[in-house]
């Protein structure tokens, strides 16, 4: 007798190896996957523009990285005593223009170089809603707590969604490795402030646009992360206290599903050992001069050396 409906991720023909680079962009799931890759000592880069939610803004971020755009002071606005970019998350905001620009341009340069060696891209869309900044008549990625009277909120049309996704694919195919795999997901995080009905409509528009955009493209795939949380883990015990964001147990479940479908056998062993080393490194002691603790550290260091010999990139840095 079955008591739940399991949702599987289709096994990938191309497997992720221990030297592969993974680029992720978009909503919270992109950041969570990046953290998992980083803990496993796989080369990963996430959200060079900070967390972004809709397909149009993600396209703009990818385009600026593709073009290696250098932001200037006239690309910023001064609001709430900070210099901000409406293309970026508020984590880039600063009281000084040169500090904001330095953060932005360093991230773009790093992402441009990283994408040229990337074999896997994970894109997570969170919403179909977008805001237009009325003083400049342009669509923006983040409102930065500027008063709502300066913005107009609306749904992206189906054409805008599919065009944004299609152009994003084209840019990535051109800048990434020839056999790059582009994986699309929809965030299971519900945007309850939009309204429950509106959130469901927003997600459904994203899912429809993704499926239409990736149809017939061998290197583009949809990962049913949204469906795993909505149907497979259909219980509030898999959410944080806010009842909106998946908890660590849910993230780990999705991670294992993804790994079974996409990791090579070598990558599974490599990541598993690195996770064990990371757990050991987090071990605390009251006496770091204790000979037994020093012996413990020597053993951990030997394991790190053995793992480092398997890859060219620096691990446990």
From TrEMBL:
GO MF terms held by the record: hydrolase activity, acting on ester bonds
Domain GSCFA: 22-258
InterPro entries: GSCFA, SGNH_hydro_sf
Membrane spanning residue stretches: none
Protein name as annotated: GSCFA family protein
Organism: Epilithonimonas bovis DSM 19482
Lineage: Bacteria, Pseudomonadati, Bacteroidota, Flavobacteriia, Flavobacteriales
């Amino acid at each position: 007798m079955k008591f739940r409906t399991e949702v599987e991720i289709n096994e990938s023909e191309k497997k992720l190896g221990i030297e592969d680079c993974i680029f992720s962009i978009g909503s919270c799931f992109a950041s969570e996957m990046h953290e998992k890759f980083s803990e496993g000592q796989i080369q990963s880069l996430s959200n060079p523009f900070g967390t972004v939610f809709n397909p149009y803004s993600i396209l703009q971020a990818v385009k600026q990285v593709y073009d290696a755009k250098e932001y200037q002071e006239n690309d910023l606005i001064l609001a709430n005593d900070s210099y901000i970019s409406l293309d970026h998350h508020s984590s880039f905001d600063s009281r000084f223009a040169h500090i904001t620009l330095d953060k932005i341009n360093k991230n773009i340069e790093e992402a441009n170089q990283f994408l040229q060696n990337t074999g896997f891209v994970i894109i997570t869309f969170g919403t179909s809603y977008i805001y237009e900044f009325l003083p400049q008549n342009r669509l923006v990625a983040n409102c930065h707590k500027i008063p709502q009277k300066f913005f107009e909120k609306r749904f992206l049309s189906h054409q805008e969604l599919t065009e944004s996704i299609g152009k994003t694919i084209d840019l990535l195919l051109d800048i990434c490795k020839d056999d790059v795999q582009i994986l699309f997901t929809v965030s299971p995080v519900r945007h309850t402030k939009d309204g429950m009905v509106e959130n469901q409509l927003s997600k459904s528009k994203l899912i429809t646009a993704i499926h239409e955009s990736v149809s017939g493209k061998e290197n583009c795939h949809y990962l049913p992360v949204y469906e795993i949380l909505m149907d497979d883990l259909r219980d509030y015990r898999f959410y944080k206290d806010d009842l909106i964001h998946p908890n660590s147990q849910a993230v780990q479940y999705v991670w294992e599903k993804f790994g079974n479908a996409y990791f090579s056998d070598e990558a599974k062993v490599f990541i598993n050992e690195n996770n064990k080393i990371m757990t050991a490194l987090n071990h605390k002691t009251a006496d770091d001069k204790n000979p037994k603790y020093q012996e413990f550290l020597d053993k951990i260091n030997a394991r790190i050396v053995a793992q480092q010999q398997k890859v060219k990139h620096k691990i446990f840095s």
